Amino acid sequence: LPPGIRHQTRTYCTNGALRVRTLLLQALSCTITALYASLSSATMRSHHATLLVIAAAAALTPLPPGINAYEVAAGTRNRPAEALAPVALRAIAAAREANVKLGEIEFPALLGEKTAFDDVDNVQILNWNRDWCMASMQPLAGELDGELWLAFPDRKELELAREEWPGAAYAKATLTTLEDAAEVLSGSSDQAWGAAFARAAEGLLGTSNLGAKPETTTAPAPQVVVAVQPGDGGPLEDWLNLERCQPSDGLLVSVNGAFDKLRGGFYPRPLFPKLAECVDRFVVDAEALVVLKNVADKGRAGWLFRVYPEPWQLFAQGKEASLLLETYTTRPAYNDCVATLLKAGPVVA
Question: How far apart are CA 316 and CA 174, in angstroms?
Fold first, then answer.
């Protein structure tokens, strides 16, 4: 069987599914209201806070199973990245409905397979992000066909995606690269000096190890562009090209593009002025569609989690269970998350 065939039985939440979810929440609310009315006055007061917590938690997406580092280290594999696929599709559908222009999906590569203490190289991360995007976005490709563009870091990664994911279901989307998509959608692109040199050498030698240029110019205009690991582990030009991949009337999604690294000033402004201007103009406006970020300090572990358009959630992670500590309407600072995590103490299952 071709890789990824087991991923085809996914649930894709369209706008109709979003309405069903709303009806279910309304039904839950009615149930809580009826229960509330049946309580005596004294009991009502004592259980008031509990009922509100239940109602709030019901509207929030739970953490995906299998992300507990203790379980992963022990060899447990629950495929949490697969569980995030329908969550990501639901967030993309909600973002499109709300006319969001730029969104980010960010979570640890090899989630549920490796821990922060395992050795992982960039090739493994590239392969993992490629496979996750090809499998997870297939239902969206079935809806949009060629109007979904998957933009890979370079032409070799694009070539590998086609080899590893054959079949008509995966060929519906337009497969391209950040550079080629930027040229088509904005009329220009930035090219890393290494790639430019290698292509010039291949032209002289008559080889094509870097992959052929995709036929992006003849593709239908995109409604959604999904950028696969732009910039992180690659040339800075990927992030510059990413800005140029914005559809004229659609959604651009960065998957594991390390936007936190850019926002946090990892690249000093005096040394990388062009990238800094791109961050100020473009990256800071990204809407968090799905973000799952590890929070850890002094032996305590937790997760900051958000699914658009829900609030942010901060969880404490124990060896056998996780505990929701706090919700936020806007993204909290990492240090604030650490402080809340340490104040909460250990999680007892």
Answer: 40
